[in-house]
């Protein structure tokens, strides 16, 4: 039996635009998904706990008729299980063991579909745990590549490498097309607000694609996000936290223009700014889920806790460890 874990992430800059080849800078955070893989004779049995901050347990089986009714949004759980199914397919291919069976147990502190990279973390941890359980040791580069294949398959060919590379490598990373690198970053005081909801990544990505195809100014908006990221990289290198915050605010405005924010995400962003946060933006696909703000003082955290629509607010630190074997 092998347990591996991988971190979630926030986007400092660049989500959505990264799908069209613009650069993005996601940062891994110390909120992890753990996956335990144990060989069994055949098939796949998945048990998952705490796939939302409110927590629930679900058991999945290869045979759909054995799947129990559950009282959490089925589409989200189905999506999560889709990532595990695809991750196991990658494990079987990497280990050249097409018939390998597994009991998979997932424990995750990363809310599902909320912009914190839950699916990428589960995919990377499942690939690491599954291959190690079969006696195969993959490089991090191979885990990142295979986790990307998982996301790309589940998201109908519309995934960037950002989430999976960040979760596998840890730290702050820069993604531009197929070019993925770790970059230096100062300590960033992340405060996260979570509205308890989730966005449908596939539908949100498709919505931006339609706008971009229809309107030149939407295509320009996507390019402008790329400009923000390039400027943000300079601010990171100069450790200019004030400018990083300003650029996060600008980035949120452009994501909002592309239709991927929501009333509660906007409320949390404004609450963080009003409380003195250095910058605040939605993180990930949007539509619902999380915002990320920068603030060292307690004010932003407290303001978010009292913001209508904010279900949880918490601090998160940059996690420089990517995927790792736990036991
Ligand atoms: C989702 O976490 C981030 C998006 O940019 C999609 C992707 O990069 O695959 C919206």
UniProtKB/TrEMBL annotation:
Its main location: cytoplasm. Homodimer. InterPro entries: Galactokinase (IPR000705), GHMP_kinase_C_dom (IPR013750), GHMP_kinase_C_sf (IPR036554), GHMP_kinase_N_dom (IPR006204), GHMP_knse_ATP-bd_CS (IPR006203), Mev_gal_kin (IPR006205), Mevalonate_kinase_arc (IPR022937), Ribosomal_Su5_D2-typ_SF (IPR020568). It comes from Halovenus salina. Residues 234-300 form the GHMP kinase C-terminal domain. GO terms for molecular function: ATP binding; magnesium ion binding; mevalonate kinase activity. The active site is at 163 (proton acceptor). It catalyses: (R)-mevalonate + ATP = (R)-5-phosphomevalonate + ADP + H(+). ATP binds at residues 111-121. Keywords: ATP-binding, Cytoplasm, Isoprene biosynthesis, Kinase, Lipid biosynthesis, Lipid metabolism, Magnesium, Nucleotide-binding, Transferase. This is Mevalonate kinase.
């Amino acid at each position: 039996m092998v347990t591996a874990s991988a971190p979630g992430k926030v986007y400092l800059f660049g989500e959505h635009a990264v799908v069209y080849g613009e650069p993005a800078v996601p940062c891994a955070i110390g909120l992890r998904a753990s996956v335990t893989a144990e060989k069994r004779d055949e098939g796949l049995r998945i048990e998952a706990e705490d796939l939302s901050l409110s927590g629930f347990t679900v058991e999945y089986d290869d045979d759909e008729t054995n799947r129990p009714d559950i009282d959490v949004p089925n589409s989200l759980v189905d999506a999560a299980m889709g990532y595990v199914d695809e991750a196991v397919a990658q494990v079987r291919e990497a280990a050249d063991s097409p018939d390998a069976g597994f009991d998979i147990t997932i424990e995750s502190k990363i809310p599902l579909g909320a912009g914190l990279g839950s699916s990428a973390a589960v995919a990377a941890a499942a690939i690491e745990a599954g291959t190690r359980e079969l006696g195969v040791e993959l490089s991090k580069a191979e885990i990142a590549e295979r986790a990307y294949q998982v996301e790309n398959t589940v998201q109908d060919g519309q995934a960037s490498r950002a989430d999976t590379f960040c979760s596998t490598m840890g730290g702050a990373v820069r993604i531009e097309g197929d070019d993925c690198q770790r970059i230096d970053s100062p300590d960033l005081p992340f405060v996260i607000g979570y509205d308890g909801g989730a966005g449908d990544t596939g539908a949100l990505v498709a919505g931006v694609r339609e706008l971009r195809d229809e309107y030149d100014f939407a295509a320009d908006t996507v390019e402008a996000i790329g400009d923000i990221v390039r400027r943000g990289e300079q601010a990171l290198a100069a450790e200019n936290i004030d400018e990083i915050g300003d650029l996060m605010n600008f980035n949120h405005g452009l994501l909002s223009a592309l239709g991927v924010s929501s009333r509660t995400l906007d409320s949390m962003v404004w609450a963080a700014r009003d409380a003195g946060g250095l910058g605040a933006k939605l993180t990930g696909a949007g539509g619902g889920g999380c915002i990320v703000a920068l603030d060292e003082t307690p004010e932003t955290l407290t303001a978010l806790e009292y913001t209508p629509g904010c279900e949880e607010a918490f601090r998160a630190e940059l996690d420089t460890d990517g995927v790792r074997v736990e036991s």
